[in-house]
Amino acid sequence: MLNFPNANLSVTGNRTRLNSAGGQSLFIDTLLPIDAKLKVTQLDAFEPDEGMDPANPAPAANGESTNYRRLVVESSNQPKPQGERFLHVLKGNDTVTTAFASTDASFTGVKVDG
């Protein structure tokens, strides 16, 4: 889960691109879980009188400038192992990233080309 100040996000497959007002870009590749789906939602401001909304368990604070959230959700309803791994790469350019596992599958790493 990552929060952003504006909705200038584009999601294509496992990649999210954020463009700032100043022309800078941030690329986020989601490599694990393999079957992940990316979801961008607008955050509602927290209203103390209303209590917590189960559908939005972490709303933005009043006056908070980050109004959008990028959330990684599983695409299947199948039970996942307790040790499910999440792997994201944040980059300032559009390079190719590839996940790889050790021979004994005890860890997963990333190869970044470029």
Strands side by side in the biggest sheet = 2-3-4-7
Q: Terminal Cα separation, in Å?
A: 26 Å
Tell me the number of strands: 9
The radius of gyration computed from the alpha-carbon positions, rounded to a whole number of angstroms, is 16 Å
**Binned strand content:** 35-45%
Shape: globular
Descriptors:
114 residues; mainly beta; 4-stranded antiparallel beta sheet; 3-stranded antiparallel beta sheet; 45% strand
Give the topology, please:
Layout: E1 2-4, E2 9-12, E3 15-19, E4 25-32, E5 36-42, E6 68-74, E7 87-91, E8 96-101, E9 108-113
Antiparallel strand pairs: 1-6, 2-3, 3-4, 4-7, 5-6, 8-9
Account of the 3D structure:
0% of the residues lie in helices and 45% in strands. The radius of gyration is 16 Å and the shape is globular. It has strands spanning 2-4, 9-12, 15-19, 25-32, 36-42, 68-74, 87-91, 96-101, 108-113. The protein is mainly beta. The two termini are 26 Å apart. It has a four-stranded antiparallel sheet, with no helix packed on it.
Task: Provide a short characterization of the protein structure.
With 114 residues, this protein is mainly β. Helix content is 0%, strand content 45%. The strands form three sheets. Strands 2-3-4-7 form a four-stranded antiparallel sheet, with no helix packed on it. A three-stranded antiparallel sheet has the order 1-6-5, with no helix packed on it. Strands 8-9 form a two-stranded antiparallel sheet.
